[in-house]
Amino acid sequence: MTEFGYWLSSEEHPPLELVGNAARAEELGFSFAMISDHYHPWIDAQGQSPFVWSVLGGIAQATERIALATGVTCPLIRTHPAIVAQAAATMGAMLPGRFTLGVGTGENLNEHIAGARWPAPDERIDMLEEAIEVIRLLWEGGEQTYRGKHYTVDHATIYTLPDQPIPIVVAAAKPHAAELAGRAGDGLVTTEPNEETVQQYRDAGGDGPRYGQVRICWAASEDEAKQTVFRLWRHSGLGGTINQELPRPSDFDAVAESVTVEMAAEGVPCGPDPAPVLEQIRTWEQAGFDRIALHQVGPDQEGFFRFWEEELRPELG
Fold it and tell me: N or C: the chain end with fewer CB closer than 10 Å?
C-alpha cells in the first residue's frame, strides 16, 4: 500500500517555517516527510538553505508521529561519514523509530565549499559505499577504527545511539547507484518514476521501501502556478549532468536563462486541478514506488495543505 509524504524544501523556506510545515503535515495525515540537505539553494531566487540537522531537531520537538528522512544527505566530502553517523544517531534517539537516513552522491553545488576536489561519478559511488560502511560500523557502538580507501576513523565511539536501528535509503538515478541501493541500503530514493531503476534495485537484492517525489504547484490558476515554478525551479528544465556539476547558484541562474516558462513547468502539475497530480502519483505507483512525497513549490504551503485535505487525500484514500 502506498504511503504519502510531504517534501520539506530547505532551499525555499527558513527553518521555523520548515518546522511548522512538518507539524502541519502530521496534522493532515501524511505518514512521513523528507527534507533536503543542502549548503546552497539551487538558484538565488530560492533564497534559503538552513542546516538540516538543526531543523530536524526542531521538528522532533514539534511532532509526535510523522516519520522523517533526509532527502538526501551526502556523507562524502562536505561532511565526513563519521559526523553524519553521529548526527543521524542523535536524530534516531530524538525520533525513536521515526528517522531514516537518506544518502546520495551529492552535487558540486554543496560539496565544493571547503575546497576539496569534485570526484568523478564512479568515484563518488565508491566513496558512498565506503561511507555507508563507516556509518554502520559506528552505529554498532563501542570504540571503532576504520582505515579505508577514502575515509579514516580513529578510535571513535558514538555514545548516544538510538534503541532501534536507523534505516539507510540510497538515492539512485543510474544503474550503479541502484545496484548499490539494493546491495548496501535498506531502501531506494529517486526523483524519476523509472521502472528500470526499481528493477535494478530489486535485482541487487533490494526489498525495502522505494521513495519518490512528485513536484507540484497548487495555485488559484494554472498560469500563476507556472510562473512560480519558473521563478523558483526553472533550472529543473535543464538536462544532462548539469545538476551534479555546477558549483554555484549563480551558475545555475546563468545556464537557466534560456529556459522558458513552459520548459520549467513541463511535467509539473500546475494549478487547482487535482487530476494531473493524481495521474503523476499513479505513474509512480505503476513504476513500483510505495513512498511518494509531494513537493509544493513556492510560499503558499497552506493553499497546498487545503488542496491535499479537500482534493487529493479523499481520492487517494
Answer: N
What residues does each domain of the chain span?
A: 3-221+273-316
- Which of the 8 DSSP states describes residue 165? P
Q: Which CATH number fits domain 3-221+273-316: 3.20.20.30, 3.20.20.70, 3.30.1120.10, 3.60.10.10?
A: 3.20.20.30
Q: Are 171 and 72 in contact (CB under 8 A)?
A: yes
The model's confidence at residue 247, banded by pLDDT at 50, 70 and 90, is very high
**Catalytic residue annotation:** 38, 107
Cβ-proximal residues to 104 (8 Å cutoff; 6+ apart), any chain = 72, 73, 74, 128, 170, 171, 172, 177, 189
Q: Report the amino acid identity of residue 265.
A: A
Percent of the chain at pLDDT > 90 equals: 97
Spatial CB neighbours of 266, under 8 Å, sequence gap ≥ 6: 237
The cell for 189 is 530514493
Q: What angle do CA 176, 172, 84 make, to 5 degrees?
A: 105
Instruction: Provide φ and ψ at 126, rounded to 5°.
Output: -65, -40
Residue 86 has, within 13 A of its CA and on its CB side, a CA count of 11
Q: Which grid coordinates belong to 37?
A: 540537505
Q: What is the C-alpha separation between 239 and 192, in angstroms, rounded?
A: 13
Dist. CA 288–CA 286, nearest whole Å: 5
Residues 6+ apart with CB under 8 A from 97: 164
